[in-house]
Amino acid sequence: MITGFLSLLCLGLCLGYDDEHKNDTLPRPSLHALPGSVVRRGGNVTLKCQGPLQNVKFMLGKWQAPGYRREWSSAGHDAGFLLTHLGPEHAGRYFCAYKTAGSHVWSEQSEHLRLEVTDNHDRPGAPSAKIDSRVIFVTAFSCLAIFLLFPTVFLIYRRSQSDLSQQESSSLSTEDPQEGSGADGKRKTPSEAAAAASVPAEEPPGACD
């Protein structure tokens, strides 16, 4: 009987603890990092918690760090928590919640925000710089390929024209050299050949006898 009473007491205390720290009726807030969630070591960042209600108390917590808790009362819809001189110990996942004035019940936690702290040589803009270098490399390679392609096409065109000219010269040389030539051995033009064909041939003397 004593064991059952202790079990019920522990269950009640656990339920009371959960109700005190979480209220599903309040909308979930949102958490953002300004200027960004990737910060250089020694820099500063502001974690801004924003909710739908005014005149509330905001709380900033850190996942897997029960002793980390910061509170801030705000007359507006949001509160900013400034973190300065960041080091590796500040990296992790943060969340926030809020509660109304005179209430001991916190809202549902916001989605976790992952904060990254990089060394001085690991600049936040390093990935974009790598992407830019890749774009420059691809563009330069494309331009070089196009520059080498034009001379190749031009040489192929010249070679084909040269082969065609040789074929035409060969076909002309195989024609009958007497075709279209006059008595003097000179080649007649098409108009001269047609005029010569229209003139009747002279009969030799004494043909009528």
TrEMBL record:
<dbReference type="GO" id="GO:0002764">
    <property type="term" value="P:immune response-regulating signaling pathway"/>
</dbReference>
<feature type="domain" description="Immunoglobulin">
    <location>
        <begin position="34"/>
        <end position="118"/>
    </location>
</feature>
<dbReference type="Pfam" id="PF13895">
    <property type="entry name" value="Ig_2"/>
</dbReference>
<keyword id="KW-0732">Signal</keyword>
<keyword id="KW-1133">Transmembrane helix</keyword>
<feature type="transmembrane region" description="Helical">
    <location>
        <begin position="135"/>
        <end position="157"/>
    </location>
</feature>
<keyword id="KW-0472">Membrane</keyword>
<dbReference type="InterPro" id="IPR036179">
    <property type="entry name" value="Ig-like_dom_sf"/>
</dbReference>
<dbReference type="InterPro" id="IPR013783">
    <property type="entry name" value="Ig-like_fold"/>
</dbReference>
<dbReference type="InterPro" id="IPR050412">
    <property type="entry name" value="Ig-like_Receptors_ImmuneReg"/>
</dbReference>
<keyword id="KW-0393">Immunoglobulin domain</keyword>
<protein>
    <submittedName>
        <fullName>V-set and transmembrane domain containing 1</fullName>
    </submittedName>
</protein>
<keyword id="KW-0812">Transmembrane</keyword>
<dbReference type="InterPro" id="IPR003599">
    <property type="entry name" value="Ig_sub"/>
</dbReference>
<keyword id="KW-1015">Disulfide bond</keyword>
<feature type="compositionally biased region" description="Low complexity">
    <location>
        <begin position="191"/>
        <end position="209"/>
    </location>
</feature>
<feature type="region of interest" description="Disordered">
    <location>
        <begin position="164"/>
        <end position="209"/>
    </location>
</feature>
<feature type="signal peptide">
    <location>
        <begin position="1"/>
        <end position="16"/>
    </location>
</feature>
<dbReference type="GO" id="GO:0005886">
    <property type="term" value="C:plasma membrane"/>
</dbReference>
<feature type="compositionally biased region" description="Low complexity">
    <location>
        <begin position="164"/>
        <end position="175"/>
    </location>
</feature>
